[in-house]
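> example.struct
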């Protein structure tokens, strides 16, 4: 599937998106996510309320992943039924190109996941465990139901629904609604290797009842991913800076140096140059990383200094640039965006 995605990228974007839908549900089935998470994924992909009738009950979920309890609308823009399981997308808009495929894969995933009616469990423990506003006792109970050790150390893995996996996460998984859209999340125990895929972010290791903080840093890490490398971005490599970035980013307002960084990035050489300055310890090393002569980098640096209003390679200026540039990258990141329908 991953090979086909790559081969179709330049040939037929529509077919590529269809394969991504298939791959998305395949990964969620492998991750053993609960039925509600599958419905939430379909709702996010279709941008509308999605319903399902199975096991003698009906469930409807909106694009935020919340259960819809109002009376079902009369209009269904697309529906699919097979072997006693019925799924549909609500709304008066015409059916979108991938609606039928989304419902077909949803139905297949539900048939794999749904338990007999007398054993059906509607609880979703992982979202409860990752909710920093829930009661600690409830989080501890959720962790126990997920068979997580109360004294263990865990980290959250976050990825967009369309992440490409080479090594799947080894831990409880679900689909979580975030401010940036639906995210595929997993919890890994200490000692379990990081997954391999793109784009993927791994949060800071924490106690089991503090996993909401690991989620925050995992979301920062995945937003800093370049979308290409199969190596996940690890919040642990950022240390305390991951927490600082999470707090600043969640405020929703740009930092004081954001506009200056944006003006520098507007140059064809801007983003790569700032990235090299942040990641290296000398101008000579940065020039080598960029593959340019040191005198060329010195000329660029004069422009950078003029725009920023401070020297970004000495003292606190280096730290200030690092934070400003990473915040710009977080705001500019599109790795969590769903494909354009």
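> example.seq
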């Amino acid at each position: 599937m991953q090979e086909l995605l790559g081969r179709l990228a330049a040939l037929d974007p529509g077919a590529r998106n269809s394969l991504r839908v298939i791959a998305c549900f395949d990964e969620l089935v492998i991750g053993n996510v609960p039925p509600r998470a599958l419905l939430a994924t379909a709702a996010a992909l279709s941008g509308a309320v999605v319903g399902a009738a199975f096991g003698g009950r009906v469930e409807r979920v909106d694009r935020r992943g919340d259960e819809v309890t109002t009376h079902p609308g009369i209009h269904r823009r697309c529906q699919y039924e097979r072997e006693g399981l019925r799924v549909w997308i609500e709304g008066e808009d015409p059916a979108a190109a991938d609606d039928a495929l989304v419902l077909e894969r949803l139905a297949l995933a539900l048939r794999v996941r749904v338990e007999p009616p007398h054993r059906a469990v509607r609880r979703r423990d992982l979202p409860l465990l990752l909710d920093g506003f829930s009661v600690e006792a409830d989080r501890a109970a959720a962790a126990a139901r997920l068979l997580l050790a109360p004294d263990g150390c865990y980290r959250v893995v976050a990825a967009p629904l369309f992440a490409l996996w080479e090594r799947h996460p080894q831990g409880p998984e679900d689909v979580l609604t975030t401010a940036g859209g639906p995210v595929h999340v997993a919890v890994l125990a200490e000692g379990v290797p990081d997954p391999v895929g793109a784009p993927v972010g791994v949060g800071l290791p924490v106690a089991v009842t503090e996993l909401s903080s690991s989620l925050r840093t995992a979301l920062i890490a995945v937003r800093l991913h370049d979308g290409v490398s199969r190596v996940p971005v690890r919040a642990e490599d950022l240390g305390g800076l991951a927490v600082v970035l999470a707090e600043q980013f969640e405020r929703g307002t740009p930092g004081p140096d954001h506009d200056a960084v944006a003006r520098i990035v507007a140059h064809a050489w801007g983003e790569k140059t700032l990235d090299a300055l942040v990641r290296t310890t000398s101008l000579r090393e940065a020039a080598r990383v960029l593959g340019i002569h040191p005198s060329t980098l010195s000329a660029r640096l004069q422009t950078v200094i003029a725009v920023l209003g401070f020297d970004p390679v000495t003292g606190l200026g280096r730290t200030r640039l690092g934070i400003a540039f990473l915040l710009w990258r977080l705001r500019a990141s599109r790795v969590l965006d769903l494909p354009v329908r």
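> remarks
The two ends are 20 Å apart (CA to CA).
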